[in-house]
């Protein structure tokens, strides 16, 4: 499933009729397929905080999120004859968050999807039960212990929540993390970057001791 398709499906419940809740029999890995401190064979931790330190990861995530977040947004309503454009869309479409504009809000959402494979919107509604504000939650602090049971920062989350998922594996409730799929290559890149930095900080000189098991012959 592409990022644009994921976003399109994410906003449909707020505009059209909400889909039936998904029901699963079990959760194979309740809090994701890998921990936030997952290491690599190169000995470097690869997570949402360390991976962007690699220029290739940061460049790719920034390029994709900036390009998609800047795209224009149109709202359509499903009708019996097809769909029609909404002339007066909800206010949250242009200003989903009271603090950030639409581009910043979508950038945070895409950042979560591209690195974690999941994004979470905390939904606030007014007295008329109309969506008034959306907040992007930190995906690394979210756990899913059963269908519809979310824990955020160790506390069960009971407020309205919308979960956007990327590619999902059978039997799981969370999207597959791209960092898990490329953990070894990213870890190798981070380890190489760290080694080169230390090498040049030491004056580009390799430290070491040469040992000779026999007594050196100074006359040769």
Overview of this structure, please?
The protein has 220 residues and is of the alpha+beta class. Helices cover 32% and strands 18% of the residues. It contains 6 helices and 8 strands; from the N terminus they run H-H-E-E-H-H-E-E-E-E-E-E-H-H. It has helices at 3-15, 55-69, 91-94, 102-116, 178-181, 183-201, and strands spanning 76-79, 82-85, 118-125, 131-137, 142-146, 149-152, 155-157, 161-165. A 3-stranded antiparallel beta sheet has the order 4-3-8. It is elongated, with a radius of gyration of 24 Å.
Overview features:
single chain, 220 residues, alpha+beta, 3-stranded antiparallel sheet, 6 helices, 18% strand, elongated
What's this entry about, in short?
It contains six helices and eight strands. Strand 5 and strand 6 form a beta hairpin.
């Amino acid at each position: 499933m592409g990022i644009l398709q994921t976003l399109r499906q994410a906003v449909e419940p707020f505009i059209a009729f909400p889909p039936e809740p998904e029901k699963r029999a079990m959760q194979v890995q309740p809090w994701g397929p890998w921990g936030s401190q997952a290491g690599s064979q190169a000995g470097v931790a690869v997570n949402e905080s360390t991976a962007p330190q690699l220029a290739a990861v940061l460049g790719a995530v920034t390029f994709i999120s900036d390009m998609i977040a800047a795209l224009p947004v149109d709202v359509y309503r499903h009708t019996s004859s097809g769909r029609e454009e909404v002339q007066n869309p909800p206010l949250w479409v242009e200003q989903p968050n009271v603090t950030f504009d639409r581009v910043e809000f979508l950038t945070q959402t895409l950042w979560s999807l591209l690195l974690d494979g999941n994004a979470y919107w905390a939904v606030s509604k007014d007295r008329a039960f109309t969506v008034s504000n959306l907040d992007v939650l930190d995906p690394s602090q979210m756990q899913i212990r059963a269908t519809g049971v979310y824990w955020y920062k160790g506390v069960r989350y009971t407020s309205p929540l919308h979960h956007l998922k990327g590619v999902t594996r059978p039997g799981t409730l969370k999207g597959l993390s791209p960092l898990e799929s490329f953990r070894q290559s990213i870890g190798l890149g981070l380890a190489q970057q760290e080694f080169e930095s230390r090498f040049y900080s030491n004056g580009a000189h390799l430290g070491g001791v040469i040992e000779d098991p026999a007594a050196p012959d100074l006359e040769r």
